[in-house]
Amino acid sequence: MTTSIDRTPPAVTLRIGGEKLTSGSGGTHGHVNPATGQVDADIPLAGASEVDQAVQTAHAAFDGWRKTPPAERRRLLMRLADLLDENAAEFARRGTLDNGTPISVSGGFVPLSAEWTRYYAGWADKTSGDLTASFGNGGELGYTLPQPYGVIGIIITWNGPLISLAMKVPAALAAGNTVVVKPSELTPFSGELFADLVEQAGFPAGVVNLLPGAPEAGAALVEHPLVQKVTFTGGPATARKILHACAEQMKPVVLELGGKSANLVFEDADLTAACQHATFMSLGTLSGQGCALPTRMLVARAVYDQVVATVAEVAKNIPIGDPFDPTIISGPVVNEAALERILGMIERAKLDGARLVTGGARLEGPLADGYYLEPTVFADVDPQSELAQTEVFGPVLAITPFDTEEEAVAIANATPYGLSAYVQTNDLKRAHRLAEELEAGEVLVNGAANLAVHRPFGGVGISGVGKEGGRAGIEEFLRTKAVGIA
Ligand code: NAD
């Protein structure tokens, strides 16, 4: 199907204090369209000097912003949320240009991002401290002041360029911080429009600065002494480098990293719904490129063969193709390196004895130039094998049988990750029991949606530290000062 959507990438700039720079000292990045394998834009990249300029600018803007009445911060964020909604079609287009996410999916991230923005707008004038008082001899009045940190360094990855901004920037601003944001160089287009709308909403210049940049720019941001806290979304290898860099200055961090989330399917579940959910989530909508996806399906032996067969059938019928086609559910993976990495994991899974049920190859024919992979399902996956232990970040689902609930929990908890866990059951007691026992930052039962803003999201183990969402999400951007008055 052909569509009339314009596929021309927009120009990208560096945003410092309301100024737009068309080039940076970090050189340029040739943006590759993953649907065609062709370079479609040259992206200017910030280097250390622009990072320094942006941080100095955010630092200078901090005093005014922290003293801006909270209700005014709320009003500006509400205006930004409305602008996100008003620009939904363009954000969907840019999301698809950024990384090949199908337009039906990138479009869905826009209202979600507006909701994250509105939710934290609502917190801007609702943070409060505690009061303790004891009177009489030696008494004192004590209270706490929740205060913003100052400049927050925000580093995000490429798989959800708009929602990642919305999960970090509004909460940081609502709390009274200013920000310097470094989106992934792979996905610069959504951030450009976000910066335009921040300006249009009327935020004071310097409160939000946004710099497309390579890893070197991220490192410069982390190391900058005026950056008071870093919040990062990406992979564990980068997170370790960031932690090392932050150790020197004792700088606090939030790390939102990867996962290998278990999805426990019991015989009493609605199996049709469970198979649809598992397959579309892990293989379909983001081609497996999501941190919290249920990529490890653990299935009760009694329904194992039935579930494997149903999942394979659903997987074979996922519409894959041109991400600008609104009927498409699954697009390419982000780049050639990702494609090669995923194919390597597929080959090693076979050598490890997993049973390939469907998929396993790059797509040929009219899609051969893009980075398309067949939705791939492995059954009988050894819980200790690479496929069960390591995030693929591609459309590969691992299925393993279990005999008892205890065994299922033991397998689920036996990876170094702990981002999300999923349970499919109609036994209420079991659901609550497993919510307690599963080692993960969240447990989602019977298809509860990911990324609900009122719920704190964030992992344990090598899935990270810190939360986004809920009250915990704004508290990450406030530090507590205690006051005592004799
Ligand atoms: P990555 O870690 O390679 O890069 C992420 C960002 O870090 C990019 O902007 C990059 O330029 C920057 N960067 C790289 N090196 C840096 C350094 N030394 N200092 C500072 N910044 C640096 O990301 P990736 O591995 O391609 O991203 C995919 C990962 O992100 C997956 O593991 C996925 O699970 C995870 N992820 C997590 C969440 C979450 O909320 N938990 C959401 C989306 C993706």
From TrEMBL:
UniProt cross-references to PROSITE patterns, sorted A to Z: ALDEHYDE_DEHYDR_GLU
Segments crossing the lipid bilayer: none
MF GO annotations: oxidoreductase activity, acting on the aldehyde or oxo group of donors, NAD or NADP as acceptor
Active-site residues annotated for this sequence: 256
Domain Aldehyde dehydrogenase: 27-483
One matching Pfam family: Aldedh
Keywords: Oxidoreductase
Superkingdom of the organism of origin: Bacteria
Family annotation (InterPro entries): Ald_DH/histidinol_DH, Ald_DH_C, Ald_DH_CS_GLU, Ald_DH_N, Aldehyde_DH_dom
Family (UniProt): Belongs to the aldehyde dehydrogenase family.
This protein's name: Aldehyde dehydrogenase (NAD+)
